[in-house]
Write a structure and sequence with these properties.
The protein has four helices and four strands. The protein is mainly alpha-helical. The protein has one domain.
């Protein structure tokens, strides 16, 4: 789990979880350092995840056997445009092949350290050549 600000800098990285752990379960186990009144953009994998005093922005899920309204589709497109920028940050971290490929390192803490270093490299690259901020 990554927390990213409007300038697309990685502010927080949670611990890694082995196997096929669901996003919501790992989010519930992680204490997030968000200030009161901040906004959290999340995807539908975190459907029931909430934080106190934080505004959650999430796309509207399509109801069963009914289409979304035009306003809901427009809102979902607006959210998806910002989500693309977040996916660009994820791909920037995965530019380091050690994160992208399967790691056979079994020593405890090494995978977390590798992810920390790759996120720091993303922030360093961002400081050298800044991206357009998320609006």
């Amino acid at each position: 789990m990554l927390l990213i600000d409007a300038a697309l800098t990685i502010l927080f990285l949670s611990d890694t979880y082995a196997g096929s752990t669901h996003d919501k379960r790992s989010a519930d186990a992680t204490p997030y350092p968000l200030p009161v009144g901040s906004r959290l953009r999340q995807e539908l994998g975190f459907l029931a995840f909430t934080l106190d005093h934080v505004e959650i922005i999430m796309p509207t899920r399509k109801p069963r056997r009914r289409p979304l309204t035009r306003a809901q589709k427009t809102a979902n497109r607006r959210i998806a445009r910002r989500r693309v920028r977040i996916e660009h940050v994820n791909s920037s971290v995965k530019r380091c092949r050690i994160v992208h490929d399967t790691s056979r390192v079994r020593k405890i803490g090494v995978r977390d350290l590798v992810m920390d270093i790759c996120c720091a490299l993303h922030n360093f690259r961002l400081r050298l050549t800044p991206w357009q901020p998320m609006v």
